[in-house]
Design a protein that fits this description.
The protein has 60 residues and is an alpha+beta fold. The protein has one helix at residues 41-53, and strands spanning 15-17, 20-22, 31-32, 58-59. The protein has one domain (15-59). It has 1 helix and 4 strands, in the order E-E-E-H-E.
Length: 60
Amino acid sequence: MNDAVATADRQTHQVRVGGITIGGSAPVVVQSMTNTETADVEATVQQVLDLAAAGSEIVR
């Protein structure tokens, strides 16, 4: 590895979000955020469903 771009891995704490563990030695979790107006419930729910169908495991 090139010393100019080498970074040290740092240990993180595991945190459970619902039934999903993130951080520490847990596998990488695909997450995303909605960009709809939260007052527009129908559009927000549709976007959450679309993100889940695309493989997102956590939607914020």
